[in-house]
């Protein structure tokens, strides 16, 4: 059952899903040409939602109560890719154009840059904080690294198999895993030594793109090439995989919500999927416009947020 109502610039879509309760989908327009790549809502309910306006070299912030947005320029040459909210409540950005990690003060909007050491273009991708407050990040050119936010010291490591480090996640215990898209594997980083251990998925050339941890510390992987959602259990070292619904799926982003439901964006179907590990069933939420191109998923209590980089919209899936 679907109901659609226009209220100002916002579109509300209520979708009833059998056995899963109601999911309400709400879309917010952002400035044309922003190409929102990644998104990160503040932890507090109703708080600001940050997004990277990749093509405009800015960090955007949405007030979900009013639908109003503001863009904060990050500097000449900026091309921000990832954004997360750190333990300090501030948005932290991986900026491939600046070859730097960038912090924006959530109140004053002051911009602080932490450049990578000299040594070439990293093609910075995404970041995650470990249990000790250290920011870990990936670069598709073949690096990963860490930033000590207390001292500002940045250290970069060569990835064990070169090009490809892409998505990254922290487990509830503070362990760090990343996915290598070009290398078709995931890796666990020893946060003490900085050494990365390659972990091979059972499907060859699967194109592991992004990773996310659930509450048990299991690692969920969106496999771009194989069209699968897979899961790795670090304790048993066992893998499981499920084919994403539809013809020609292209799973891009993955995120696990507070109920341990797994959300996957699918370029092939132009849709979001929600997977229930208990029933092993997918539910599909088609995007309203063509070429939504959802490149990251993050959330907070009762909300799952996604940037539609292809339509200049932000979408929230409300589950409570």
From TrEMBL:
- Positions of transmembrane segments: none
Give the record's family classification. Answer: Belongs to the Vgb family.
Q: Which cofactors are reported in the record for this sequence?
A: Mg(2+)
Q: What does this protein do?
A: Inactivates the type B streptogramin antibiotics by linearizing the lactone ring at the ester linkage, generating a free phenylglycine carboxylate and converting the threonyl moiety into 2-amino-butenoic acid.
Gene3D superfamilies referenced in this protein's UniProt entry, alphabetically: YVTN repeat-like/Quinoprotein amine dehydrogenase
Q: Which UniProt keywords apply?
A: Antibiotic resistance, Lyase, Magnesium, Metal-binding
Is the Signal keyword given for this protein? no
Q: What is its EC number?
A: 4.2.99.-
Name this protein carries in UniProt: Virginiamycin B lyase
Q: Which InterPro entries match?
A: Vgb, Vgb_bact, WD40/YVTN_repeat-like_dom_sf
Q: Name one Pfam family in it.
A: Vgb_lyase
Q: Which residues form a coiled coil?
A: none
Subunit record text: Monomer.
Does the record bear Lyase in its keywords? yes
Query: What is an example of a GO molecular function annotated in this UniProt entry?
Result: lyase activity
């Amino acid at each position: 059952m679907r109901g659609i109502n226009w209220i100002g610039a916002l579109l509300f879509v209520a979708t009833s899903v059998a056995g899963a309760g109601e999911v309400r989908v709400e879309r917010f327009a952002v400035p044309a040409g922003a190409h929102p790549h990644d998104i990160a809502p503040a932890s507090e309910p109703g708080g600001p939602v940050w997004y990277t306006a990749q093509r405009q070299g800015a960090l955007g912030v949405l007030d979900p109560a009013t639908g109003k947005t503001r863009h904060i320029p990050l500097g000449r040459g900026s091309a921000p890719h990832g954004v997360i909210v750190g333990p300090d409540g501030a948005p932290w950005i991986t900026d491939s154009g600046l070859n730097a990690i960038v912090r924006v003060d959530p109140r004053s909007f002051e911009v602080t840059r932490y450049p990578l050491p000299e040594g070439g273009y990293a093609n910075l991708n995404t970041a995650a904080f470990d249990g000790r407050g250290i920011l870990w990040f990936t670069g598709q050119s073949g690096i990963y690294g860490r930033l000590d936010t207390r001292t500002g010291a940045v250290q970069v490591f060569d990835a064990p198999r070169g090009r490809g480090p892409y998505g990254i996640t922290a487990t509830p215990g503070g362990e760090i895993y990343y996915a290598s898209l070009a290398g078709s594997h995931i890796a666990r980083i020893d946060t003490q030594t900085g050494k990365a251990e390659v972990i091979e998925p059972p499907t060859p050339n699967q194109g592991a793109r992004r990773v996310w941890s659930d509450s048990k510390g299991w690692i969920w992987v969106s496999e771009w090439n194989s069209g699968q959602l897979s899961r790795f259990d670090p304790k048993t070292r066992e893998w499981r995989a499920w084919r994403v619904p539809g013809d020609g799926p292209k799973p891009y982003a993955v995120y696990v919500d507070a109920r341990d439901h797994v959300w996957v964006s699918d370029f092939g179907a132009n849709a979001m999927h929600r997977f229930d590990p208990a029933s092993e069933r997918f539910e599909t939420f088609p995007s309203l416009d063509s070429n939504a191109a959802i490149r990251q998923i993050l959330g907070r209590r009762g909300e799952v947020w996604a940037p539609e980089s292809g339509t200049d919209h932000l979408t929230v899936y409300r589950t409570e």
